[in-house]
Write a structure and sequence with these properties.
The protein is α/β, with parallel strands linked by helices. It has helices at 18-39, 79-92, 108-120; strands at 48-49, 59-64, 70-72, 75-77, 97-102, 125-128, 131-132. It has a five-stranded mixed β-sheet with strand order 4-3-2-5-6. The termini are far apart.
Amino acid sequence: MRKAPQTTLKPISDINLTPLMDLTFILLITFIITFPLIEQGIPVNLPKATTSDITEQKSRTVTVDRVGGLYLDDVPVSADQLRVRLVELRDANPDVSVMVRADESLAYGRVVEVLKMLHAAQIVKMALVTEAEAR
């Protein structure tokens, strides 16, 4: 009669990383897909113009929607709150840059009001965001 060897079985103490890697890749893909949607949170019809590319840097966004509502980084604010927040931003970082997004159907005077607020807060790095023209 033949006997099986008498060896003791050792428990596996290694962690299986495959499910963790799968989860990491799923989260990465989810963030890659949703990040552009988060960045363009307020629906605004931007005017079309010939533009140059903006270098990637940490900037803040002021949005003026179709009815003249103001948003700072997708958070609704009043004109007075925006003035205060812009001064706070400049005090925290004198080199802060602000992107101004405004609906193309908006009266020009409303955009100028926002630019005046930026000037009063002594923010000198600003840009008007537009859509690229179709060529």
